[in-house]
Design goal:
Length: 319
C-alpha cells in the first residue's frame, strides 16, 4: 500500500510539471513583440478613447442678470454725437468710460504723426481702475491700434468696459491689464464678432471674444498672437478656450512696425469754379426781345377790325 501511494504522488507531480511546461511558453509569447502585443495595445487604446469620450467638460456658467442685459443694449445704441472732425490729416475720437461715466473728445495725433501727451492723459483717465480710480501709463501701440479700428468702422465712440486693473496679488500682476497694454471695449452699432475679426489681423495681439459679457479684449504683446473665446457670464468663473490656433502665426508673419502707424489723410483743395451764364437766362432774354419786336410791329400795322366798320370802309374806298 505505501508503495502504491508513492507512485500515485509521483504521477500527479509529474502531470503538474508537464502542465506548467506547456503553459509558460504561451505566457512568454504574450509578452514578446508580435500579434498578441498589438492586440493588447489596441485594446488599451480603445479603453483610453472611451475614457476620453466619457470625460465631461467643465461646467460654464453663462447666466446673466436682466439689468446687465439692459445695460448691454444701452452700450450698443449709437450716441447722438456730431460728425467727426479732421485736423492736420487726422480725425478726432470719442472715448466713454462705462463704469465712471466720463467722456472725452480729442485729437490723438499731432501734425507730425506723434501722439499728443495731453491726449494720452485723457486716455489714462478713461482707462483708470474702476474700483479705486488708479491710473497707469497706456502703451502707445495700443492707442494706435484703437485708432485703426475707429477708422475702419467709422466709429462715433468707443465704450471702455475695463482698462487698467491694479493687481491685488502676484497672479494678477502677470495680466496685461496690470501694465497698461490691454483694454476691454466695444463699438456702438458694430457687432462684437466683426470687431474681434478685424482686431485679430493686427499682428502680435491678444484678442478675446466675450459674447455674454458683451465686449472684446485687445492687448499688445511681443510674443505670438493668441485668440480665445469666453462664454461665461459677468462676474462668473472664466471658461476660456483657444480658437484659431494657426491663424495667429500667419498674421504675425505679415506684421511690421510700419503697419501700426496711422495713415495721414491728404486734404485736397478744390479749385474755384468760374460761374458761367446759364443757357436758360439767354433763352429768356431772347424771348423778351422777340416779344418787344412783335409789340412794335402790331402798333405800326392797321387793325383788321377797322375794315369791318362802314365808315372806315368808305374812307378806304375813296382813297
Amino acid at each position: 500500500m505505501p508503495n502504491i501511494i508513492k507512485l500515485i504522488r509521483t504521477l500527479i507531480f509529474s502531470v503538474f510539471i508537464l502542465e506548467l511546461t506547456l503553459i509558460t511558453p504561451v505566457i512568454n509569447a504574450a509578452d514578446k513583440p508580435g500579434v498578441s502585443q498589438k492586440t493588447k495595445t489596441n485594446s488599451t487604446s480603445q479603453k483610453k478613447s472611451k475614457k476620453r469620450k466619457t470625460k465631461k467638460r467643465k461646467y460654464c456658467n453663462t447666466s446673466s442678470t436682466l439689468s446687465y442685459k439692459k445695460m448691454k443694449q444701452r452700450w450698443q445704441k449709437k450716441p447722438s454725437i456730431p460728425k467727426p472732425e479732421w485736423k492736420d490729416g487726422y480725425r478726432d475720437i470719442v472715448m466713454y468710460a462705462v463704469n465712471t461715466g466720463k467722456r472725452f473728445r480729442f485729437f490723438i495725433f499731432k501734425e507730425d504723426g506723434t501722439i499728443d501727451p495731453e491726449a494720452l492723459k485723457k486716455i489714462e483717465t478713461i482707462m483708470a481702475d474702476k474700483d479705486n480710480g488708479a491710473e497707469h501709463k497706456v502703451d502707445e501701440r495700443l492707442v494706435k491700434l484703437l485708432y485703426k479700428l475707429i477708422l475702419f468702422f467709422n466709429a462715433t465712440q468707443i465704450n471702455v468696459i475695463s482698462g487698467y486693473r491694479e493687481p491685488a496679488n502676484n497672479e494678477e500682476s502677470h495680466s496685461h491689464h496690470a501694465d497698461g497694454t490691454a483694454i476691454d471695449f466695444m463699438i456702438p452699432g458694430v457687432k462684437l464678432p466683426a470687431v474681434a475679426k478685424t482686431a485679430r489681423r493686427l499682428g502680435h495681439v491678444g484678442v478675446g471674444y466675450y459674447p455674454v459679457s458683451g465686449f472684446v479684449h485687445l492687448d499688445v504683446r511681443d510674443s505670438h498672437s493668441y485668440f480665445w473665446a469666453d462664454p461665461s457670464g459677468p462676474g462668473k468663473r472664466n471658461c476660456t478656450r483657444e480658437i484659431m490656433k494657426g491663424a495667429g502665426y500667419n498674421f504675425d508673419k505679415k506684421w511690421t512696425p510700419a503697419t501700426d502707424e496711422p495713415i495721414k489723410k491728404i486734404q485736397k483743395t478744390k479749385p474755384e469754379k468760374i460761374k458761367k451764364p446759364l443757357q436758360k437766362n439767354i433763352k429768356k432774354t431772347k424771348t423778351k426781345t422777340n416779344q418787344k419786336i412783335k409789340k412794335k410791329s402790331t402798333l405800326d400795322s392797321p387793325d383788321k377790325s377797322d375794315d369791318k366798320n362802314p365808315d372806315t370802309a368808305q374812307k378806304n374806298s375813296k382813297k
